[in-house]
Amino acid sequence: MAEAKRLFVLDTNVLMHDPSCLFRFEEHDLYLPMVVLEELDAGKKGMSEVARNVRQVSRYLDGLCEGVTDFASGIPIPGTDGRLFFQMDAIEHPLPYDLAQGKADNRILSVVLGLEHRFPERQVSLVTNDINLRIKGRAFGLHVEDYTSDHTVEDPDLLYTGHNPVANDFWETHPLTIADYEAEEGRTLYRLGEVERDWWPNEFIYSEGHGEDEGLSYRVRRRLDPSTYFIEPIRDYTNPNNAVWGINALNQEQNYALNLLMDPEVDFVTLLGLAGTGKTLLTLAATLHQVIEERRFAEAIVTRATVPVGEDIGFLPGTEEEKMAPWMGAVEDNLELLTGSGNGGGKGGKGGNGGESTWAAQVSQDLLRHRIRIKSLNFMRGRTFLNRLIIVDEAQNLSPKQMKTLITRAGPGTKMVCLGNINQIDTPYLTEANSGLTYVVDSFKEWEHAGHITLIQGERSRLADFANQAL
């Protein structure tokens, strides 16, 4: 006897988070309580991402219902073998405890309990992103699940890091042969064969090594066949002669990051890491070098998700850039260091008397105003950025859909860098597994013009390093 189809009851937040979830349950049936439709109707107004998602859900539901006369039998869901059911009558089932009957979450629990009694032969599951609702549902003996169809990885610790160690004797057992030499760019490509492992484009491979092989690092350029790669030596940005706007890499991962940030062939870079690992400083140093010195880009655009850590400070007056200024403290702090207007003494720094310090501070502000633009994510739709370097700070707070909207704004000659720490997500219903930053790291790892590095070692201060470990 064939196993009965499962019946999934969808909470409102699942639909708000992923409008296409209606088409992701394969052969199983879906059920929408009337309170969910009421909550969707209440959330459709506005220009927020949630409101847009709600309107998209409404369009999907309207399209599914078009021409349907028998709602009791369910509505076929295209691309699946399941059917969609709406609550057609009152399902009153007493809750085990004296809970507020009018609260939406409790009404959904009541519906799920009623469906279990109405269909004892089927497994009825409540799907919700609300942790507290999942706890209450399990306390009542219900089968409750998180919505995981949009999870990029099951375990964030297994997320692609961008660098991969090899054994100390790897280079002895896998000799390199010169495959190509580009004199103008000073690049030498080597052919590496008989490799029984999967490496992605722009992944860094290294060995601790001994003697002549100590600290060897190469970057994978492309794969010729399942066991043969083209690789090239990396540029050593730990060497003071290779400083970028007065900044040198302080560890191996920072060196890899600068190789990606400074490479004109890499259009999309993602940097993950804990606070103090140097994500913003390295990116801004590479930005100033390529915008001011090399003039590779017309200007830089910095943006971020405006999600407060504590209480919202409310309405901010002024222009778009003035409204964004309080969110850009990290950028300004690092610009002060790089231009020498603070106590850091970067490339533009003079360090001396007060007049020179004032001059350096003015340079920093001019750079910020004229060559580094601060933009809000709210006004990105419909735009096309030509020959720009776009920096997305705190990218872990963006959803996959928001990330797609932003990346597709890039026009010819544009490079995009996404920075973030997936351990510090402040957006409701986003987790390490379904963050937009996690999504793009995994999605772009196969593209030859994208690169990713997870920064591990903190370089801010001994206090910050200890806090990351102990707190």
Structure description:
Helix content is 31%, strand content 18%. With 471 residues, it is α/β, with parallel strands linked by helices. The chain has 3 domains: 139 residues, Rossmann fold, CATH 3.40.50; 77 residues, Thrombin, subunit H (Beta Barrel); 229 residues, Rossmann fold (3-Layer(aba) Sandwich), CATH 3.40.50.300. The chain has a 6-stranded mixed sheet. Helix 7 packs parallel to helix 8, helix 8 crosses helix 10 and helix 12 crosses helix 13. It is elongated and about 75 Å long. The chain starts with 6 loop residues before the first strand and ends with a helix.
Overview features:
Thrombin, subunit H; 471 residues; ATP-binding; Rossmann fold; six-stranded mixed β-sheet
Number of helices: 14
- Name of the CATH first level of the largest domain: Alpha Beta
- CA radius of gyration: 27 Å
Main structural class = alpha/beta
The portion of residues forming beta strands comes to 15-25%
CATH architecture of the largest domain: 3-Layer(aba) Sandwich
Distance between the termini: 54 Å
What summary fits the major beta sheet?
6 strands, mixed
Please tell me what the overall shape is: elongated
In the predicted model, the low-confidence regions spanning at least 5 consecutive residues are 307-313, 348-355
Strand order of the largest sheet: 3-4-2-1-5-6
CATH topology of the largest domain: Rossmann fold
The H-level CATH homologous superfamily of the largest domain, spelled out, is P-loop containing nucleotide triphosphate hydrolases
Q: How many strands?
A: 18
Helical percent range? 25-40%
Number of domains: 3
Mean pLDDT: 82
